[in-house]
Amino acid sequence: MRCAERRRHAVGIIIGAAFGTIIAALVSEVLMPPIGLLLGNVDFSNLFIVLKEGKTIVPTRRSAAAKAAGAVTLNYGMFVNTVVNFLIVAFAIFPDPGHELPEEEGRGPAAAPATKECPHCLSTIPIKATRCGHCTSELKAA
User: Fold this and answer.
1) What are the backbone dihedrals phi and psi of residue 22, each rounded to the nearest 5 degrees, phi first?
2) Residues with Cβ < 8 Å from 115, sequence gap 6 or more?
3) Beta carbons within 10 angstroms of residue 32's beta carbon
């Protein structure tokens, strides 16, 4: 891999990470609050199931408070947020599954071969050769 290609990959990874952070903020701060409001004032980040009560049993509606009390929780609301994040990133990166990616610069059709085999001694010789340099046989023009 060339140095320029490595830089391109590094820049892509950094931009991808930043894009993921932006999408996470978009989902948690912009998209999910109105959806939660439409579904009856639900805060998706605090939807959880208590699997095991903590040392102090405190009725709480916040997953952070339940964890602080020592409870084991299944945070399915955070999972919903993460799935929405993933779907947005997936549709942004792959907008059209049938769309072909453009060819990279410098890559064109395959180059014509530069060598061929001598039919008499099977040595590799230049494609434009009229006589084999190994066995000195005369070759037909290609």
Assistant:
1) -65, -45
2) 124, 125, 126, 127
3) 19
Position 57, amino acid: I
pLDDT in tens, 12-40: 888 888 888 888 888 888 888 888 888 88
Secondary structure, 3-state, 23-36: HHHHHHHHHHHHHH
User: In which residue are the tokens 């494609």 written?
Assistant: 127
Q: Which two tokens stand for residue 36?
A: 């939660």
**pTM for this entry:** 0.52
Residues 6 or more apart in contact with residue 36 via CB below 8 angstroms: 42, 43, 44
Closest CA to 116 of 142, 86, 80, 79: 142
Burial class of residue 69 in the structure, from the number of CB atoms within 10 Å of its CB (0-12 exposed, 13-18 middle, 19+ buried): middle
Q: Summarize pLDDT for 36-80 with one digit per residue, the tens.
A: 888 888 777 788 888 888 777 766 677 777 777 778 888 888 888
